[in-house]
Amino acid sequence: GDKILLEELGGGSYLHNLTLNLKCQTSGFQFNTSILSWYLWDPGHAPRWLSSLDLTSAETNGGRIISSREDNSRQIFLQIKGLSLGDSGHYHCARRMGDGSDTDKLVFGPGTDVTVEP
Protein backbone atom coordinates (compact mmCIF):
# COMPACT_ATOMS: atom_id res chain seq x y z
CA GLY A 1 0.00 0.00 0.00
CA ASP A 2 0.88 3.67 -0.03
CA LYS A 3 3.32 4.95 2.52
CA ILE A 4 1.73 7.35 5.01
CA LEU A 5 3.58 10.62 4.81
CA LEU A 6 3.29 13.59 7.18
CA GLU A 7 5.65 16.53 6.74
CA GLU A 8 5.63 19.60 8.98
CA LEU A 9 6.77 22.94 7.54
CA GLY A 10 7.27 26.39 9.00
CA GLY A 11 9.54 25.90 11.99
CA GLY A 12 12.43 28.14 12.94
CA SER A 13 13.00 31.16 15.17
CA TYR A 14 10.06 33.36 16.07
CA LEU A 15 9.98 36.54 18.11
CA HIS A 16 8.05 36.67 21.39
CA ASN A 17 4.40 37.78 20.91
CA LEU A 18 4.36 37.08 17.18
CA THR A 19 2.16 34.45 15.51
CA LEU A 20 3.36 30.96 14.65
CA ASN A 21 2.10 29.45 11.41
CA LEU A 22 2.85 25.80 10.70
CA LYS A 23 1.53 23.48 8.06
CA CYS A 24 1.62 19.75 7.57
CA GLN A 25 1.59 18.20 4.10
CA THR A 26 0.18 14.67 3.97
CA SER A 27 -0.09 11.83 1.49
CA GLY A 28 -0.66 8.10 1.36
CA PHE A 29 -4.06 7.86 3.08
CA GLN A 30 -7.69 8.91 2.82
CA PHE A 31 -7.29 12.51 3.99
CA ASN A 32 -10.84 13.78 4.14
CA THR A 33 -12.06 11.08 6.54
CA SER A 34 -9.01 11.19 8.82
CA ILE A 35 -8.67 12.68 12.29
CA LEU A 36 -5.49 14.75 12.38
CA SER A 37 -3.86 16.39 15.37
CA TRP A 38 -1.07 18.72 16.40
CA TYR A 39 1.29 17.91 19.28
CA LEU A 40 4.13 19.74 20.97
CA TRP A 41 6.74 17.14 21.83
CA ASP A 42 9.71 18.19 23.92
CA PRO A 43 12.54 15.72 24.51
CA GLY A 44 12.11 14.03 27.87
CA HIS A 45 8.40 14.86 28.11
CA ALA A 46 5.24 13.19 26.92
CA PRO A 47 3.73 14.68 23.75
CA ARG A 48 1.39 17.54 24.62
CA TRP A 49 -1.84 17.58 22.64
CA LEU A 50 -2.61 20.97 21.07
CA SER A 51 -5.58 20.42 18.80
CA SER A 52 -7.45 17.83 16.77
CA LEU A 53 -9.27 18.20 13.48
CA ASP A 54 -12.06 16.03 12.31
CA LEU A 55 -13.78 17.53 9.29
CA THR A 56 -13.70 21.16 10.37
CA SER A 57 -11.49 23.79 11.95
CA ALA A 58 -10.70 23.49 15.63
CA GLU A 59 -10.10 26.23 18.19
CA THR A 60 -8.45 25.63 21.54
CA ASN A 61 -7.23 27.72 24.46
CA GLY A 62 -9.71 30.53 23.95
CA GLY A 63 -8.76 31.10 20.35
CA ARG A 64 -5.00 31.41 20.92
CA ILE A 65 -4.43 28.10 19.12
CA ILE A 66 -6.35 27.58 15.89
CA SER A 67 -5.98 24.62 13.56
CA SER A 68 -7.59 24.18 10.18
CA ARG A 69 -7.53 21.81 7.24
CA GLU A 70 -7.62 22.07 3.48
CA ASP A 71 -8.90 18.85 1.93
CA ASN A 72 -7.96 19.78 -1.65
CA SER A 73 -4.27 20.16 -0.86
CA ARG A 74 -4.28 17.49 1.92
CA GLN A 75 -2.77 19.96 4.39
CA ILE A 76 -3.48 20.90 7.97
CA PHE A 77 -2.46 24.16 9.58
CA LEU A 78 -1.62 25.35 13.07
CA GLN A 79 -1.64 28.96 14.21
CA ILE A 80 -0.56 30.08 17.69
CA LYS A 81 -1.03 33.74 18.54
CA GLY A 82 1.02 35.70 21.08
CA LEU A 83 3.95 33.33 21.28
CA SER A 84 5.74 32.91 24.61
CA LEU A 85 8.96 31.11 25.51
CA GLY A 86 6.93 28.10 26.61
CA ASP A 87 5.77 27.58 23.04
CA SER A 88 9.29 26.57 21.99
CA GLY A 89 9.72 22.93 21.11
CA HIS A 90 9.23 20.24 18.50
CA TYR A 91 5.85 20.41 16.73
CA HIS A 92 4.40 17.30 15.14
CA CYS A 93 1.28 16.57 13.19
CA ALA A 94 -0.24 13.15 13.75
CA ARG A 95 -2.88 10.93 12.23
CA ARG A 96 -5.18 8.81 14.39
CA MET A 97 -5.38 5.19 13.25
CA GLY A 98 -8.31 3.21 14.57
CA ASP A 99 -11.96 3.38 15.52
CA GLY A 100 -11.82 6.14 18.13
CA SER A 101 -11.03 3.98 21.15
CA ASP A 102 -8.22 4.44 23.66
CA THR A 103 -6.10 1.93 21.79
CA ASP A 104 -5.91 4.08 18.67
CA LYS A 105 -2.44 4.38 17.25
CA LEU A 106 -0.94 7.76 16.38
CA VAL A 107 1.32 8.10 13.38
CA PHE A 108 3.59 11.13 13.86
CA GLY A 109 5.44 13.16 11.28
CA PRO A 110 9.15 13.88 11.84
CA GLY A 111 8.30 17.26 13.35
CA THR A 112 9.65 20.77 13.02
CA ASP A 113 11.58 22.79 15.63
CA VAL A 114 10.26 26.13 16.87
CA THR A 115 12.33 28.48 19.01
CA VAL A 116 10.68 31.55 20.54
CA GLU A 117 13.19 34.36 21.11
CA PRO A 118 12.66 36.89 23.92
Automatic annotation (TrEMBL):
Every Ig-like domain range: 1-93
What PANTHER family does the database record attribute to this sequence? IMMUNOGLOBULIN HEAVY CHAIN
A single GO BP term for this record reads:
adaptive immune response
Answer yes or no on keyword Oxidoreductase. no
Q: Name one Pfam family in it.
A: V-set
Give the UniProt keywords, A-Z: Adaptive immunity, Immunity, Immunoglobulin
| One annotated Gene Ontology cellular component of this protein | extracellular region
List the protein's name.
Answer: Ig-like domain-containing protein
